[in-house]
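Quick review question:
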């Protein structure tokens, strides 16, 4: 093997790793998760059990309101959001990289689940879940059912 080469020839990754890899001129994107599932998808989900939500309605409501506020704030000023992330996390990553990720048109900040049903169908087909969902609303609380999820 030559300098800088490894036995790894392909891999899937997520932010920030995919962006770090793409900084290397020898690395190129062949395929993305958007290609696999047909467009943007939710890769991070905050969840709670029904028991927690029922036992802690005030905490749940306050958390959801704060999450909505955070999403709105990030979308209103992505540069400030990136700077805040760098400061709070004491990130050692290049600030330009972080800003590039936060401001990337491939990254969205929303409470609307995007293409989660693709995964629900996969889990049902492969036996990963016992009950097959009929819609994305089957596994999200009603608090966001008015959003255009999938």
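Suggested answer, residue by residue:
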């Amino acid at each position: 093997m030559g300098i800088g080469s490894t036995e790894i020839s392909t891999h899937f990754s997520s932010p920030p790793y995919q962006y770090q890899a793409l900084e290397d001129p020898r690395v190129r994107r062949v395929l993305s998760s958007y290609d696999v599932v047909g467009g943007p998808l939710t890769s991070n989900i905050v969840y709670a059990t029904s028991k927690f939500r029922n036992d802690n309605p005030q905490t749940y409501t306050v958390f959801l309101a704060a999450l909505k506020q955070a999403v709105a704030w990030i979308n209103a000023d992505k540069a400030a959001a990136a700077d805040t992330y760098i400061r709070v996390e004491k990130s050692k990553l290049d600030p330009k990289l972080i800003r590039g990720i936060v401001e990337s048109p491939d990254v969205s900040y929303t409470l609307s689940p995007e293409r989660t049903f693709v995964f629900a169908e996969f889990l049902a087909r492969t036996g990963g879940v016992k009950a097959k969902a009929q819609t994305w609303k089957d596994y999200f609380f009603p608090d966001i059912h008015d959003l255009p999820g999938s």
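Why it works: The radius of gyration is 19 Å. The CA atoms of residues 124 and 131 lie 7 Å apart.
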